[in-house]
């Protein structure tokens, strides 16, 4: 009897989960994953992890890199990984394989996913030697040839307007004009061949029409809902003894080692000066040489103990640290609207939502107005700080990336990946009407 009821319970649970999947409403949500030769994804991962100094050593484990999250930080953790955010390309691909509305026939799809690891492929163009045989204006053209020659009807349906792909690199890395061969970047986004395709990226340009920014891939990938909630509780109760924190890639850009960065007026330099003179109010974390993505504990622990995390723009306006900090319940302080407000509209809400969970200090106020960041932050009431921290923690479910194979309870939460897919489907569906 006991066995029987156990058995029927198992069966019930099984039937229930099957019916949940099949009753999922897939209207306008069907995705077809375009089949690409390995030269456009798997091979790139192999080749780059063996030869490329710009990826961290964790990607030397191909079986882990396919999942994109890297190895665990230590054996006993169930939530923390040495994640290189560039590897969102294979990560997203892997997550999409679990997507409930995948279709095997492209004709019934609302959108087509291109599992092309565009950022990994860009390296051979970005770091091409001058006398090499790489056509520096050729990024993506071999893919395009494949797309219009192999099952050409898939591309022809909408001239690529229903295709999307994801990258771990900034759009700036792909938006050089073909005429300016000396400048940084590949020509991928400037090639008419790809004008119609949607790119999901951690950093969009100011007036993007091809791309949309989605959160950086962080190191936090809890396996179950309870582990997720435990972390949020910990961040909620954490003793925040430091007013503010800055985790940055060293003082290099102020020291002249990186060329042009040496003499420009620099908000980062102001932050270093302030933190040096008031170490009791400010924690500095040195993240140079990939020290932080290899060892997230270096910054997550201090972020748990800081009230505010400073996010000045650097070489580019956005930073992975925005998302690391929020996961630790550290209230973000922005100095430039391009750091988040003009980027993550699908995940962090509209302009009006920002004052609920973040502080904005125009960088000019610090650079030219003679104001101290600590003075401004110190004047915010404890009550407001508490409210803001609650709002930050409420956003964590929508900005972290669940890893593949998470528990069903955790899957019920819509994470950064789910919101990105919702957004891209909407963008693709409404594209034609926008063109009119
Ligand atoms: C992009 O879409 C436009 C408008 O539908 C179409 O004319 C053009 O051929 C498409 N581009 C490519 C490369 O297919
Ligand atoms: C929080 O930190 C302060 C200062 O470091 C310390 O005095 C206090 O006892 C701590 N509180 C808790 C609950 O740990």
UniProtKB/TrEMBL annotation:
Any Pfam family: Exostosin_GT47
GO molecular function: glycosyltransferase activity
Location of the protein in the cell: Golgi apparatus membrane
Domain Exostosin GT47: 26-367
Coiled-coil boundaries: none
Entry keyword set: Glycosyltransferase, Golgi apparatus, Signal, Signal-anchor, Transferase, Transmembrane
Any one Gene Ontology cellular component term annotated for this protein: Golgi membrane
Membrane topology listed for this record: Single-pass type II membrane protein
Span of the signal peptide: 1-23
Homology family: Belongs to the glycosyltransferase 47 family.
Official protein name in the record: Glycosyltransferase, family GT47
Organism annotation: Zostera marina
């Amino acid at each position: 009897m006991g066995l029987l009821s156990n058995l029927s319970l198992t069966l019930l649970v099984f039937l229930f989960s099957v019916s949940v999947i099949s009753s999922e409403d897939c209207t306008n949500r069907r995705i077809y994953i375009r089949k690409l030769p390995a030269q456009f994804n798997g091979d790139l991962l192999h080749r780059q992890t063996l030869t490329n100094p710009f990826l961290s050593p964790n990607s030397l484990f191909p079986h882990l890199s396919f999942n994109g999250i890297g190895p665990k930080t230590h054996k006993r953790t169930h939530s923390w990984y040495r994640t290189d955010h560039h590897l969102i390309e294979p990560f997203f691909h892997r997550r999409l394989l679990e997507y409930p509305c995948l279709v095997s026939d492209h004709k019934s799809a609302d959108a087509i996913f291109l599992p092309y690891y565009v950022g990994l492929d860009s390296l051979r163009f970005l770091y091409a030697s001058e006398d090499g045989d790489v056509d520096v204006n050729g990024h993506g053209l071999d893919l395009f040839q494949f797309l219009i020659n192999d099952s050409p009807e898939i591309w022809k349906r909408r001239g690529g307007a229903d295709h999307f792909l994801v990258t771990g690199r900034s759009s700036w890395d792909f938006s050089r004009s073909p005429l300016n061969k000396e400048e940084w970047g590949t020509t991928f986004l400037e090639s008419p061949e790809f004008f119609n395709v949607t790119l999901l990226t951690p950093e969009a340009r100011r007036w993007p029409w091809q791309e949309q920014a989605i959160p950086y891939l962080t190191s936090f990938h809890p396996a179950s809902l309870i582990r997720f909630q435990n972390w949020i509780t910990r961040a909620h109760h954490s003793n925040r003894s430091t007013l503010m924190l800055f985790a940055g890639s060293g003082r290099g850009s102020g020291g002249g080692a990186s060329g042009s960065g040496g003499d420009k007026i620099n908000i980062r330099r102001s932050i270093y000066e302030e933190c040096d003179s008031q170490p009791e109010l400010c924690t500095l974390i040195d993240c140079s040489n990939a020290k932080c993505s290899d060892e997230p504990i270096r910054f997550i622990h201090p972020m748990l103990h800081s009230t505010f995390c400073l996010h000045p723009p650097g070489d580019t306006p956005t930073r992975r640290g925005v998302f690391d900090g929020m996961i630790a319940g550290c209230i973000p302080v922005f100095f430039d609207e391009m750091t988040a407000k003009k980027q993550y509209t699908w995940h962090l809400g509209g302009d009006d939502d920002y004052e609920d969970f973040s502080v904005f200090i125009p960088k000019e106020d610090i650079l030219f107005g003679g104001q101290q960041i600590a003075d401004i932050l110190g004047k915010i009431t404890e009550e407001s700080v508490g409210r803001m921290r609650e709002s930050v923690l409420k956003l964590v479910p929508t900005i972290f990336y669940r890893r593949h194979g998470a528990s069903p309870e955790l899957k019920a939460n819509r994470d950064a990946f789910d919101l990105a897919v919702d957004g891209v489907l909407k963008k693709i569906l409404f594209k034609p009407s926008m063109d009119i």
